[in-house]
Amino acid sequence: MADQEPRNEPLVTEPPAHTDGNGHRRGGPEQTVEFIAEWRNAAYNCFSSGHKFCREVCPVTQVTRNESWTPTAFHANVVAMEQGDMDIEDVAADYVNCTQCGACELRCPNTLFTGDFYRFRTRTVDLVKAVRALAVDNGVHQPAWQRWNLLTDERTHEPVLGEVPVSQEHVRDWAEGLDLPVGGENILFVDCEAAFYRTSLPRAVAQILQKAGYEFGLMQEQWCCGGPAAEMGYVDQARRFAEHNLANWRASGAKRILVLDPHDYISFTEEYPKFFGDDFDMEIVLVVELFAELIREGRLTPSVPVERTVTYHDPCRLNKRKGIWKEPREILRAIPGLEFKDVDRVTQWSYCSGAGAGLIIEKPELTAAISGRRMDQAAELEVDTLVSACPWSERPLSEAGADRSIGVVDIHEVLAESLGIEVGGRTSA
Ligand code: SF4
């Protein structure tokens, strides 16, 4: 890649004069000391310098070969900060270069060889998030992320790339004509990309649920899940959004939240429990798992042949982060007419789209390179279609696929087609 340096200089502003829940000032040396205390052991335990385990599975390293943007470097910086050789201002921009895919954690010798005995696991994703949060709390912002989060705060939804109108008023437009109730025990949460841009996806999901006779409603006032803010370091904002959504679920009598987007699934199963502890009283149901179960039980029977030769793109947050890879394959194998060519047998070391954790916002050229590499791997299998289960991966993968004559479709939409449901919305693959 020619453009390996950060395109934009971070804006260094005054640390915010806000305090945490204990009245301690956020930002500044005290918080850096706390950060180092939390991460120094993990940093010193990182013995992969010179090894190829983690960096060779890192999607960013694969396309840049930049040694400052590797899981090893992300740990080494903590040692340098502890030794007083570097400060958060020196390293913050490097941590943009991570999709929080989790591949390095799985491949790390520390995770592989000591995990079972010592119950230890390398946590690069959490480290990257912690550094980004430390940067924001110290007034060190990445320009595109800062704008993105300001706009998200203003609109209560992510701005969504491109010319798509985003506002609270339009968050349920995708459901027009489907006659869906508001509130109830089961709530379908639709992420910002799907609600405002890829509207064919939530329409397909809603219609499949209706076909299976599964009762559900929509939120009274849905806000962004807050996950992207948490991933980019804007933790206070993420918490505010989480507080709103949880209060709204409770007000409408919700017990179960149905989720179609892997990023929301991470927010609700990892971030929200961190924010609310034992008070978080919602069951989180991933729709792709639910659909596999409904097929198994005979409540959904795909019968319309879909004549495509496909492979499956494992979203990082489902496979590498959550170990969910069987159910999407179960669905694909239940669809008549579909020729399914799987990637390989080491499914947890699957490929990344490059879209995650804000990389596409701050460095779209890196996302495009990673997506291009992903589609090259699909092309080797001689397929005409790549099926994904993540709305955020589908735009960059579709762009990369266009050059290689490979279409990208969403797994929920393929299933809907096979159930005889007409799929359509604001955009399609
Ligand atoms: S989480 Fe993924 S993108 Fe980030 S350093 Fe690890 S392998 Fe690279």
Largest sheet, spatial ordering of strands:
7-6-8-9
Which residue ranges are poorly predicted, with pLDDT under 50 across at least 5 consecutive positions?
1-25
Query: What general outline do the C-alpha atoms trace?
Result: globular
Strand content: 5-15%
**Structural class, please?**
alpha/beta
**Could you give the order of the helices and strands?**
EHHHHHHHHEHEHHHHEHEHEHHEHHEHEH
Count of helical regions: 21
Strand tally: 9
Distance between the termini: 27 Å
**What small ligands are held by the chains?**
iron/sulfur cluster
- What's the rounded overall pLDDT mean? 89
- Alpha-carbon Rg, integer: 21 Å
Largest sheet: 4 strands, parallel
What is the helix content?
40-55%
Structure characterization notes:
Mean pLDDT is 89; it is low at 1-25. The protein has helices spanning 29-45, 53-57, 59-64, 71-82, 88-91, 103-107, 109-118, 124-137, 143-155, 192-196, 200-211, 227-232, 235-251, 262-276, 287-296, 319-322, 326-334, 359-362, 364-380, 391-402, 411-418; strands at 11-12, 140-141, 186-189, 256-259, 283-286, 309-313, 339-340, 385-388, 407-410. It is built from 21 helices and nine strands. 48% of the residues lie in helices and 7% in strands. The chain is α/β, with parallel strands linked by helices. β4, α14 and β5 form a beta-alpha-beta unit. The two termini are 27 Å apart. Strands 7-6-8-9 form a four-stranded parallel β-sheet, sandwiched between helices. A three-stranded parallel β-sheet has the order 3-4-5. A two-stranded antiparallel ribbon has the order 1-2. Bound molecules: iron/sulfur cluster (SF4). Iron/sulfur cluster (SF4) binds at residues 57-60, 71, 98-104, 124-125. Iron/sulfur cluster binds at residues 57-60, 71, 98-104, 124-125.
